[in-house]
Write a structure and sequence with these properties.
The chain is globular. The protein has one domain: Vaccinia Virus protein VP39 (Rossmann fold, 3-Layer(aba) Sandwich), CATH 3.40.50. The two termini are 31 Å apart. The chain has 269 residues and is α/β, with parallel strands linked by helices. Helices cover 36% and strands 19% of the residues.
């Protein structure tokens, strides 16, 4: 496992994309793929954030905050990034080091990132901020390590209709240590106060039935409820396209930090 030293980090060399991801796949890789991508939420959510990061990340420094086993940071590495995943859970990081082509795996706190200022060209965080005891502090840290002109892509629980099912919402918060939810407007205000401008945002699980399903799976779906519901992904996506107005269970935001982008910050905008 690669660990941080003196507020720096040791990135792994980017790995080219395989022609066939399933050819010769190790058991650890297969389990990680099933856990992260055979998932009614994460498949669309994380892939949208990765698309916002850019298809060509050659040489860019990418940090995934609260990145677990590093699976999604590994997808950024496969696009050429010098990728790092940070998490407090040592067991997840240990598992991530068994995966093929893992990113650098760092044990650390999102509220006190162990990196120097402006260390990364892109920062990613997938549905993590709502679990932090101090979400504002986490945004301070993500902004601090983001280079001028760099981009932050993140998602958070929004649950804009949660008031219709208070029991489910309470069970969801208790089970997953959810401290609060965020709308796109709330995130935009928090980011603007830190010198980041929202470029685009998107809600997912926008319809009433989809939000109800999300809360129900969270509260009572068991350990693999979201995975078992993966066949519903096309239905949720279709309902999202037809929904009106702003709101949903999850909000995704892409924002850019003020300042001139350095000459070596390539990749797709």
């Amino acid at each position: 496992m690669l660990m941080n030293t003196a507020r720096g980090y040791l990135p792994r060399t980017p790995q080219p994309v395989r022609a066939n991801r399933f050819c010769g796949m190790k058991m650890a890789d297969a389990v990680a793929l099933a856990g992260h991508e055979v998932h009614v939420c994460r498949y669309r959510e994380a892939r949208t954030l990765l698309r916002w990061l850019g298809e060509d990340l050659d040489g860019l420094r990418v940090l995934d905050v609260a990145g677990g086993d590093g699976y999604w940071a590994g997808r950024a590495r496969a696009r050429g990034a010098r990728a790092v995943a940070l998490d407090l859970a040592g067991a997840k990081l240990k598992y991530g080091d068994r995966l093929t082509g893992p990113p650098a795996l760092i044990m650390g706190d999102a509220l006190a990132l162990p990196f120097a200022d402006a260390s990364f060209d892109r920062v990613m965080s997938i549905c993590a901020i709502e679990h932090f005891d101090d979400g504002a502090r986490a945004l301070d840290e993500m902004t601090r390590v983001l280079a001028p002109g760099g981009e932050l892509v993140m998602s958070a629980d929004a649950l804009t209709l949660a008031g219709q099912w208070p029991g489910l919402y309470r069970a969801h918060c208790e089970r997953y240590h959810v401290q609060r939810t965020y709308s796109h407007a709330e995130l935009a205000a928090l980011l603007a106060a830190r010198g980041l401008e929202v470029i685009t945002y998107q809600y997912q699980f926008r319809s009433r039935w989809a939000q109800r399903m999300y809360l129900g799976l969270s509260a009572y779906g068991g350990k693999f409820g979201f995975n078992a519901a993966a066949p519903a992904v096309p239905l949720v996506a279709a309902a999202d396209r037809g929904a009106r107005g702003d709101g949903g269970a999850i909000v995704l935001v892409r924002a850019r930090r003020e300042g001139q982008r350095a000459a070596n910050q390539g990749g797709s905008a």
